[in-house]
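Ticket closed. Logging final result for Iron ABC transporter permease.
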Amino acid sequence: MTSAASKGTSQAASTATEEANGRAAARPARALRAGPLAASLAAALVLALTAAVSLGAVDVPPGEVWSVVARRLTGRAPEPGTRDLIVWQLRVPRALLAAVVGAGLGLVGTAVQALVRNPLADPYLLGISSGASLGAVATLVLGTSLGLELGFGSALGLAVSLAAFAGALAAFSLVWLLARRGRRGFSPLRLVLAGIGIAQFLGGITSYLVLQTGDEQQTRGVLFWLMGSLGGAVWAQLAVPAAAVALGLALLQARARGLNAMLMGDETAAGLGVDVTRLRREIFVVTSVLTGVLVAVSGAIGFVGLMVPHVCRLLVGGDHRRLLPLSALTGALLLVVVDTLARTALDGQELPIGVVTAVLGAPTLLYLLDRRLEHS
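Final structure:
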């Protein structure tokens, strides 16, 4: 009898879990299939990367771009001239870093929105990016005042990365503690409100530090970095963020079913066998680490983590088994395109990436929200 009851309970839990995943997988009207969409996004990403390397102050034909890349990848000696320097040393690392950062921001935005069950949540709204920016800026200001040079392999470059991660972790920890106060325990609404307050507070401290630099050129450089920039991208910068994004995708994908269950509320998810507290803690650590790493190499880039999950949900629905990898691909494609526009939109002047994402992202987000309200 006990064995039969246990078997029945197990089957009921399995059925309920499948039902939870089925609800999360509910697709909007005219939804696209994930496989063909992923293939299309991957092809578009290759084209966008080619255009990003080809376009600039000195245009390089796409055929020459792939010729230089092929020679480098096969170990053959590069052709003499400046084309190899422009393509391989300057533009390819920057284009690849844009893809990695965009993929990471798409992942973080999707995970955070599931974490707090709020479609308007992103790392910036919850104070994660503000904490990372404060740590990085404090280190930049202190390091440059001591005469240290910034480079990813330098002592200052490593310190900036570690400080950004520590700042992200500390900020979200504070927000998390504030959200858990009260008799009813964790509250997504309190988490969002606490995140907004902490983000504004840390942003004020960051602005104060920037104004205390006393060097106009340094102030402009830090402000430009805070608005997002990939201008200093080199090959040495790619390994850490690429590894972090790949590991983050693997960890989040392994928890996709739990994220689907959490969409129906903590009590329902717990009834389906999900350890909600542990899952939230794991997502919290993953998003904090990813945000810290990304901010350290690119500065603060807004709207990508907020907009990309909305677009992907409209295309394939809310099942995180499909949503996470598609958000990574969409974020990578978006940021490569945005970075290319930031470099080439104005002759002789580069725009901060955050300016372009805000100009493109705000109207797009308003349009998406308007569509959701019409169908709600």
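Confidence is low (pLDDT under 50) at residues 1-20. No further action required.
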